[in-house]
Amino acid sequence: MPIKLAIEGAIARILLSNPAKHNALTAESLALFMDHLDAVSANGAIRALIITNSGGKTFCSGAALQQLASGAMSGELFSTLTDKVTAMAIPTIAAINGNAYGGGAELALSCDFRIGGQGIRVFVPPARIGLCYPLRGMQRFVGRLGVTTAKRLLIGGEEFAGQQLLELGFLTHLVAPEAVESTANAMANSIAELAPVAVQTMKLLCDGIAAGHCDGQIAQRLIDRCNQSDDLREGLAAVAEKRSPVFKGV
Fold it and tell me: Of 56, 73, 166, 209, which residue is least crowded by CB atoms under 10 Å?
């Protein structure tokens, strides 16, 4: 199966496991990926999601070109997946074990955190083959990286690697290749110990602020709900009693 879901405690992991095809996503694998995202969203016990790949040299090479050429899938369909990843209520972590091409770069950018190994490369090749990247995908590149870097990737066809990816904001963490998985696991476990109501509220508000559509009244209601939660009462009690808090997400 090219896309696998594993859940261990409060951590979910979606694994791209078709290295022979550079983890290119067909219409069928996109549907399976989105089913897995729905399953994660429906499970209130999950507090963080890791998206990663197994083996090979490529994290993800985006949409399968043969299906794009045949019309079996479209770039807009691929953007439906990345929109869904972006909209996840829980924090998402891309553990990038290999190079990211085209839509694979967009998939990584749809996550909240991106951990990559030294030596990985990223490029977006639509201009090399005469394809215009989908609008929602271009919005994601511009929103995450700024218009200048987005143009360098999309229009200039530039390739970036290692430290450059960290400096440009594509990666949030750059580690040794063998440390990608352990770093992602440590981050996910750390997030899982935090107060879910506060984490998810602040993720939602940060994303709204970045997109320019954060309504002040709605935001204040969300903040008030967080500040009246059982999680906050538990956190304050834990501080007073000098113990670790046990958050329940309510």
Answer: 209
Angle value at C-alpha 218, between 213 and 223, nearest 5 degrees: 110
Q: Residue 13's closest CA among 161, 169, 180?
A: 180
The one-letter code for the residue type at 26 is T
Helix axes 75-86, 27-42, angle to 10 degrees: 20
CB neighbours of 200 closer than 8 A, spacing ≥ 6?
89, 90
Out of 3.40.630.30, 3.40.190.10, 3.40.50.620, 3.90.226.10, the CATH code matching 3-191 is 3.90.226.10
Model-level pTM? 0.94
Candidates 242, 145, 236, 247; CA nearest to 199 is 247
Residues of the chain with pLDDT under 50: none
Ramachandran class of 219: left when φ > 0, alpha when ψ lies in -120 to 50, beta otherwise: alpha
pLDDT in tens, 104-147: 999 999 999 999 999 999 999 888 888 888 899 999 999 999 99
Helices (H) and strands (E) in the chain, counts: 12, 10
* Alpha carbons 24 and 8: distance in angstroms, whole number: 26
Spell 71-92 as b/e; 16+ CB within 10 A means b.
eebebebbbebbebbbebbbbb
Q: Do residues 84 and 37 make contact, with C-beta atoms less than 8 angstroms apart?
A: yes
Residue 163 near residue 175 (C-beta atoms within 8 A): no
The pLDDT, as a whole number, for residue 239 is 93
